[in-house]
Amino acid sequence: METKAFQKIYTKITQITKATCSLNAEGVGYEELASVNGRLAQVVKIQGDNVTLQIFGGTEGVPSNAEVTFFGRPPVLKVSEDLAGRFFNSFGLPIDGGPEVEGEEREIGGPSVNPVRRDQPSELIATGIAGIDLNNTLVTGQKIPFFADPDQPFNQVMAMVALRAKADKIILGGMGLTNDDYLYFKNVFDNAGALDRIVSFVNTTEDPPVERLLVPDMALTAAEYFAVDKNENVLVLLTDMTLYADALSIVSNRMDQIPSKDSMPGSLYSDLAKIYEKAVQFPAGGSITIIAVTTLSGGDITHAIPDNTGYITEGQLFLRRDTDIGKVIVDPFRSLSRLKQLVIGKKTREDHPQVMNTAVRLYADAANARTKLENGFDLTDYDERTLKFAREYSEKLLAIDVNIDTETMIKTGWDLFAAYFRPEEVGIREEYVEKYWPNNE
């Protein structure tokens, strides 16, 4: 960060807490960056002339006569086409050994788009993962989280979505990634030759946790540049929002704010909404779609983080390990895309809604059959067939390693119906059965 010759240097700190320091200063703006004893800090509170700074690296070892210099601006990101294919840290500085990006400086963390300037989302965004595209189709401009246990391969799923998704640009915001995760993303994108459309902002476990609070704003500022200035469809992948919320709670605790539910700050809802509400479909054609990972603690869906997230987003995608096939699947019962009806059967084949509903209903019948089996009841012939169907449905359509287009997913659904059931058992409209039932070809 350059300092300018006329910047005033303050040397009298009036109060120091675990994460913040306060001093009297004039002409300072909210969210402005500063340097305290050489450490980066940001203005988080102003009362009259009394300014409170959050120090990203913590306050340990900062003396009361430390030099404080204000930069005169909030954090910025230089935006241009050169962002594509690059890896940056929380402050938008390159971490891939490449040169700094030349471009126009944009302040990060601006307001979300006025609802009047939004269009209703109407374009399908395909990910190649059948558990999403067939059952929980995503729409450009949507915001949706993956709920996953910490031991599930959610970063691999994110990488798959990044490589397969039909989007012009993919922006990855990695918060609290291990070094292995960071290198994993880097290698996967590199080897797939997909780097030219992916921009990554990464905070690793070795960086101070509070720095990850800047990552979503950096990612979304880049997304807004491509969606607004270039009219592109941008997919933003954020992982892991639970670690983001933990960083919020670290800061609020250090500032002695009274915690709310699950030791989270009272502002959690608005902090999360500020990020998710950046998802938008613009009338001119550009869009920002947000998929974020929220890891669950012991599968607890009622924890403040997933609980608040569920109110803000338009559905959720639920990962779970299917013990029958030994793979991670997108759970059809607990996953939901609230906008899918805007595209299924309209932007996809006419029979998509019926195939989707029928498959999930038969899968539910299999779950009932499994309960009968566990309780020692005899199974009917139909029960036996639903169990076989469920296994193959998991293997061929729900597993996250399935990579096929939507048309093939629908055809696979019909093939499975025909393999185990008679047309009258599946309850699909006659005109579709006549047209698509495999034996009629």
Number of E-state strands: 21
Q: Helical content, roughly?
A: 25-40%
Number of domains: 3
Low-confidence stretches: 1-5
- Report, as a whole number of angstroms, the end-to-end distance: 67 Å
- SS field, number of helical segments: 12
Radius of gyration: 25 Å
The profile of the biggest β sheet is: 10 strands, mixed
Secondary structure class reads alpha/beta
CATH C-level class of the largest domain is Alpha Beta
CATH topology of the largest domain: Rossmann fold
Give a topology summary:
Elements: E1 9-10, E2 13-16, E3 20-24, E4 33-36, E5 39-47, E6 50-55, E7 68-70, E8 76-79, E9 87-88, E10 104-107, E11 124-125, H1 130-133, E12 138-139, E13 143-148, H2 154-164, E14 169-177, H3 179-191, E15 198-204, H4 215-229, E16 233-239, H5 241-254, H6 268-276, E17 280-281, E18 287-295, H7 304-312, E19 315-322, E20 327-330, E21 336-337, H8 352-374, H9 381-398, H10 406-420, H11 423-426, H12 430-436
Overview of this protein structure:
Strand 5 (39-47) and strand 6 form a beta hairpin. Mean pLDDT is 91; it is low at 1-5. Helix content is 32%, strand content 23%. The strands form 4 sheets. Strands 9, 13, 14, 15, 16, 17, 18, 19, 20 and 21 form a 10-stranded mixed sheet that branches. The protein has a 7-stranded antiparallel sheet with strand order 1-7-4-5-6-3-2, with no helix packed on it. A two-stranded antiparallel ribbon has the order 8-10. It contains 12 helices and 21 strands. The chain has helices spanning 130-133, 154-164, 179-191, 215-229, 241-254, 268-276, 304-312, 352-374, 381-398, 406-420, 423-426, 430-436; strands at residues 9-10, 13-16, 20-24, 33-36, 39-47, 50-55, 68-70, 76-79, 87-88, 104-107, 124-125, 138-139, 143-148, 169-177, 198-204, 233-239, 280-281, 287-295, 315-322, 327-330, 336-337. It is α/β, with parallel strands linked by helices and 441 residues long. It has 3 domains: 9-70, Elongation Factor Tu (Ef-tu), domain 3 (Beta Barrel), CATH 2.40.30; 76-341, Rossmann fold, CATH 3.40.50.12240; 352-440, no CATH class. Helix 8 (352-374) crosses helix 9, helix 8 (352-374) crosses helix 10 (406-420) and helix 9 packs antiparallel against helix 10.
